[in-house]
Amino acid sequence: MNLAAVDLSIVWPALIAGLLVTATHVPLGIQVLSRGIVFIDLAIAQIAGLGVIGADWVGFDPHGWAVQVSALSAALGGALLLTWTDKHWPEVQEASIGVIFILAASGALMLLASNPRGGEHLKDLLIGQILWVNPGRLPIEALVYATILFIWFAFGERIGRIGFYGLFACAVTVSVQLVGLYLVFTTLIVPALATRRFQRRRITACYLLGAAGYALGLALSILSDLPPGPLIVWTIVALAIVVFACGPRVAAAEH
Predict the structure, then answer these.
(1) What is the pTM of this model?
(2) How far apart are CA 201 and CA 179, in angstroms?
(3) Where are the domains positioned within the chain?
(4) CB 170 within 8 A of CB 24
(5) What angle, 0 to 180 degrees and rounded to 10, lies between the N-to-C axes of helices 160-179 and 65-88?
(6) Cα–chain center distance at 28
(7) SS3 assignment, position 38
(8) Homologous superfamily of domain range 3-246
(9) What are 127-168's pLDDT values in tens digits?
């Protein structure tokens, strides 16, 4: 496919969505990696997805505010539960996250069992439909992300355990509906993992890696006609390997 012949009205919203997700998930991802709770985003994203599927199951408009409220309420509920387990059972927090994830995933499958389009809904939740992002919603989502970033950079760890989990839940709720669960996890963890040895400008390197991964992945998807979500995942991981291999040899102190 010729890049010049591609309808840019489809491509640019997808790229902006990827950049917005990257902007928010990079600082949160560094924090998640330092806390050793790598799979928290999978659990909370799956819970948010369960909220979306549940709202659809009871008949709410798929693009209405009721679905957003359902997804956010589910994610915040999951975040509060993980806050509780982190406080009382910190030594098994990763195991708790895994159990919550599998419960949410199984619940979603049960709700989709009687839906003739259940397989399509599940696919959208996992790999997303980044090329079909609604441009009209991007300003609202950008405002949500900007608020999350302001709170994080202004207050950092002073927001406490509950604040962190709540902020994380809000970010993931928006992101999983924009780009899907696989890209949410990849954007959160892979740049932070690739730059874990960086002692200077780590966050800048993460942002550049994420942005390059989305841009190159979308371009390769257009050229190859392969689905953009999985291809962006592979592109980000490939770039991360290069960054890690070419980066510092001494690990940075976690903070």
Answers:
(1) 0.82
(2) 27
(3) 3-246
(4) no
(5) 140
(6) 10
(7) coil
(8) ABC transporter involved in vitamin B12 uptake, BtuC (1.10.3470.10)
(9) 778 888 888 889 999 999 999 999 999 988 788 888 888 888
